[in-house]
From TrEMBL:
Its main location: nucleus. It comes from Balaenoptera physalus (Fin whale). CDD domains: DLC-like_DYNLT3. One of its GO terms (biological process) is cell division. This is Dynein light chain Tctex-type 3.
Length: 116
């Protein structure tokens, strides 16, 4: 008899899976666009909302935090950092860097396991 394996039974955060989800969301929102400060609020909201919705649809026992920053590309660069105090065996993070000729985008996902 085959054992049924639910996604929420997996131990640890799958950063590759999250990366692919977020990358698709960024491509869908920013792909083909040029930087326009009038669109930033809409773009960042769409990226975080779509990413969060797709992550939740995975049905895994996690609480998610998704952040997004979009900046106009410049010679000055763009640097971010984060630090977490958590259970590294179950919680995790994923950061996706995306750019085109006019802008840079960085999305970070923090996944905190729900202990039932």
């Amino acid at each position: 008899m085959e054992e049924y394996h639910r996604p929420c039974d997996e131990v640890g955060f799958n950063a590759d899976e999250a990366h692919n989800i977020v990358k698709e969301c960024i491509d869908g929102v920013l792909g083909g666009e040029d930087y326009n400060h009038n669109n930033i609020n809409q773009w960042t909201a769409s990226i975080v909302e779509q990413s969060l919705a797709h992550l939740v649809k995975l049905g895994k026992a996690y609480k998610y935090i998704v952040t997004c920053a979009v900046v106009q590309r410049s010679a000055y660069g763009f640097h971010t950092a984060s630090s977490c105090f958590w259970d590294t065996t179950s919680d995790g993070t994923c950061t996706v860097r995306w750019e085109n000729r006019t802008m840079n985008c960085i999305v970070s996902v923090f996944a905190i396991a729900i202990v039932l």
